[in-house]
Design a protein that fits this description.
This protein is an alpha+beta fold. Helix content is about 20%, strand content about 25%. The mean pLDDT is about 90.
Length: about 140
Amino acid sequence: MLLARRSGAVNAWQFPQGGVSDGESPEQAVYRELLEEVGIGRHLVRPIASTRRWRKYRIPAALSQRPDLKDFIGQQQKWYLLEFLGGDADIRLDREASPEFDAWQWVSYWYPVRAIVSFKRQVYAGAMKELAPHLAKIAQC
């Protein structure tokens, strides 16, 4: 699994993710966000599966007091499992003027559930449990 570290953060690792823009489908957002955040073009991934429902989390009240999170209460997410068809050189964190991530790593499937910030853990565990049966469809498994 591709895990990326948020720019300027010491230990804030997560999957690439992002919002759905007006007029955009969730599937279109997946490909746009992958390109913007980690430089992976649509031609470098193969869709395998997605979660059936949207999963939600709320940020803790203490975090909502931070100026950069003032209007942020949490997220509603739809998850996608993609097979990466490229190589390490295809992962580019420098495509945007202000990159969201400054490092990336390949990790085992369940590692992100342990590594993610605690308030997102339930969402990660639920989505990954739902997607796990589809791992056999990925050629490298």
